[in-house]
Amino acid sequence: MTKQFVLVVYDISNDRRRTKLHNTLLNYGTPVQYSVFECLLDEKGLARMKRATLKVIKPRVDRVRYYYLCARCVGKTEVTGGAEVLWEEPGAIVV
Asked: Radius of gyration of the chain from Cα atoms?
């Protein structure tokens, strides 16, 4: 199953909801800043993450953005300090 690289960015003013969303997203990706996660998910995992997010946030006041990045775009990402960009290399096929 193909995985998609998704950058999840959120702006939530309520401390309790923000912390709850952060803890929820830990099940799906890697935090690269407090309100930014890199996620490598298949279609089902992405759907589960979005459902879990909707259970935490209040859509009228909270903002969550999902940025879908292609392999080429992820490859162009530059990191200054901190962890490298989360990415899986294609698996090798042994014949």
From this structure: 14
Q: Which of 58, 61, 59, 18 is nearest to 37 (CA)?
A: 18
Sketch out the chain's domains with CATH numbers. 4-72 (3.30.70.240)
Sheet (strand 4-11) strand order: 30-33, 36-41, 4-11, 63-69
State pLDDT tens for residues 27-62: 999 999 889 999 999 999 999 999 999 999 999 999
Q: Is the per-residue pLDDT at 83 higher than 80?
A: no
Whether pTM exceeds 0.90 = no
Helix or strand holding residue 89 (H, E) = none
Q: How far apart are CA 42 and CA 51, in angstroms?
A: 14
